[in-house]
């Protein structure tokens, strides 16, 4: 992950230098779901890189992964998700470029309130389904499965086992069944709130 963070920045810089365009858009695909222990850390690293490198966008495809195949077969949808970034950011069309992307969290007593970018119409992918894979931890960093409900453009997260939550994470399984989407039906990215 650490090597990738350095090398990815260099890759973007080198392509922009080659094309003599410091502002050249660079859109990439986040790792999908796969049963490899480091995958959640890597996906979250990719999400953070998008915030560090200007004029980039990331297509989330955790919902299109295969637990046994590093090359999932549903590539057209992933390509369309990349196209949403280009249509919105490069060509100025009024399309939603991404699923919900973690922005911030605030803790009030035993509740975590998580805010997202691209948060219009937050919901579970299946109507009436409970939100899955949210977890919270206190100072001890021991995570417990959490309940989560949508409240407007944020998600309220809590667990009876964590009286003073300090960290919230989502989709933190190598092969995840995470199911938060926005009104455009695009999936939320893996995130962990204490990693910057």
Structure keywords:
alpha+beta, 4-stranded antiparallel beta sheet, 3 helices, 24% helix, 25% strand
Integer-rounded radius of gyration: 17 Å
Main sheet strand line-up: 3-4-9-8
The chain-level structural class is alpha+beta
Using the alpha-carbon principal axes, give the shape: globular
Distance between the termini: 14 Å
- Please state the average pLDDT score: 95
Taken as a percent bin, the fraction of beta residues is: 25-35%
* Total number of beta strands: 12
* Helix fraction bin: 10-25%
The sequence of SSEs as H and E is: HEHEHEEEEEEEEEE
Describe this protein's structure.
- The chain is of the alpha+beta class.
- Helix content is 24%, strand content 25%.
- It is built from three helices and twelve strands; from the N terminus they run αβαβαββββββββββ.
- It has helices at residues 2-18, 39-52, 75-90, and strands at residues 26-29, 56-59, 101-108, 111-117, 123-124, 134-137, 144-145, 147-151, 154-158, 167-170, 180-181, 191-192.
- It has a four-stranded antiparallel sheet, with no helix packed on it. A four-stranded antiparallel sheet has the order 7-6-10-12. The protein has a two-stranded parallel sheet with strand order 1-2.
- β8 (147-151) and β9 (154-158) form a beta hairpin.
- It is globular and about 55 Å long.
- The mean pLDDT is 95.
